[in-house]
Design goal:
The protein is an alpha/beta fold. The strands form three sheets. The protein has a seven-stranded mixed beta sheet with strand order 3-4-2-1-5-6-9, with helices on both faces. Strands 10-12-11 form a three-stranded antiparallel beta sheet. Helix 7 runs antiparallel to helix 9. InterPro entries: NamZ (IPR008302), NamZ_C (IPR048503), NamZ_N (IPR048502). One of its GO terms (molecular function) is peptidoglycan beta-N-acetylmuramidase activity.
């Protein structure tokens, strides 16, 4: 069975155990036995003084892009400072009584999942305020296989809170590895220690760990949603529902004007092996088409060891646009960190003028997305920082 960084730390008694600790975490961060990390650490005698929480809040229930406020944790009684509200990084005042920062948040392996970028601000704060940072590492749930990494790479002028620094959409790294990579390559000069997990094979996926799935945010409720997310998240920039407000977010795509069987047949013909597609209908309780019946497709990846999620998500949008040119539209996606919601597709893909890709004829489009999703040099770039 896999052991997370927090499990390894709980077996140790580090010199800083009684120092004043600021823990960056949420309720999805648990031990391998599913006890919340913050509770397990307190019971083991770690001197946690304050909690910092990312997007979706400490309880992992806040809606996507919704600002979260400070509060108090009902489980531990500790104060909670939100890092997805008035500020994205801890202030000097927040860290005044803190000796060391501890980070334990599960990631899902996609660049635009914001927990990585909360970590980036923590690294900068660690360096600026000279507070050591200990990262309790966790496996990448969609595998650490570098051959499954997919671009596009982020163009620096498309930087935002869903992608601050250049990294592929699907990065195949752990957060501990990315922290070491960024600290070195961006010369951040933070003092970082990574407590590595044990028993993880880079080629394994979350269901292989022998640990039940724990939802990481309101829309990521199962492994298939997590696996499809790097591609289907692109639907946020369109008027197609990605299934938010259903039990199948990022596993379905639909709208009131789509013919499900037609789209399903088109996607089956164009997709690579390893994707199961069926026509479906659903009624979202929130987001696009809330309370309206949508028709479309439901997807399941049957061969995760070689399936290209990002490539397939881009293809899905192209097929819908081709089938429904009058109904399909690009759409803004307002959030706390991008109130206007403009330029969302560029921020997701990392490409400049990415909507122009979809004006290409199908053969040229396929060639272009094949080129953009290939990241052959990413493995070499990160090799010195990989821990497993």
């Amino acid at each position: 069975m896999v052991q997370f960084g927090v499990d390894i730390l709980l077996q140790q008694s580090p010199s800083w155990k009684k120092a004043a600790i600021g823990l960056v975490t949420n309720h999805a961060a648990t031990t391998h036995a599913l006890q919340p990390s913050r509770q397990a650490l307190l019971e083991a005698g770690f001197n946690i003084r304050v909690l910092f929480s990312p997007e979706h809040g400490l309880d992992v229930s806040g809606a996507d892009g919704q600002a979260m406020q400070d509060g108090r944790d009902p489980l531990t009684g500790l104060p909670v400072i939100s890092l997805y509200g008035p500020k994205l990084a801890p202030s000097e005042e927040d860290l005044a009584g803190i000796d060391i920062l501890l980070f334990d948040i599960p990631d899902i392996g996609a660049r635009f999942y914001t927990y990585l970028w909360t970590l980036s601000h923590i690294i900068e704060a660690s360096a600026h305020f000279q507070k050591p940072l200990v990262i309790l590492d966790r496996p990448n749930p969609v595998s650490g296989n570098m051959y499954l990494a997919e671009g596009p790479m982020l163009a620096p002028d498309n930087a935002s809170f869903i992608g601050r620094w250049p990294v592929p959409v699907r990065h195949s790294c752990t957060l501990g590895e990315l922290a070491l990579y960024f600290n070195a390559t961006r010369k951040l000069s933070a003092f970082i220690e990574v407590v590595a997990c044990k028993g993880w094979d880079r080629n394994s996926f979350q269901p292989d760990w022998g640990i039940p799935f724990v939802p990481t945010s309101p829309a990521i409720q199962d492994f298939q949603s997590m696996l499809l997310y790097p591609g289907l998240c692109m639907l946020e920039a369109t008027n197609i529902s990605e299934g938010r407000g259903t039990h199948h977010a990022f596993r379905v795509a639909g709208a009131p004007w789509i013919n499900g069987p037609v789209l399903a047949n088109g996607l089956k013909e164009m997709s690579e092996e390893g994707l199961s597609v069926q026509a479906t209908e659903f009624i979202p309780s929130e987001g696009k088409y809330a309370s309206k019946r949508c028709y479309g497709v439901k997807m399941e990846i049957t061969a995760p060891g070689h399936f290209q999620t990002v490539w397939s998500g881009l293809l899905l949008i192209k097929l819908i646009q081709s089938l429904y040119p009058k109904e399909f539209a690009w759409a803004p996606y307002p959030t706390h960190v991008n109130p206007s919601g403009k330029g969302h597709l560029d921020k997701l893909t990392g490409l400049r003028n990415s909507e122009n890709l979809f004006t290409l004829p199908l053969p040229a489009f396929l060639a272009a997305i094949t080129k953009h999703t290939r990241v052959d040099d990413w493995k070499a770039a990160t090799a010195a920082y990989l821990l497993y």
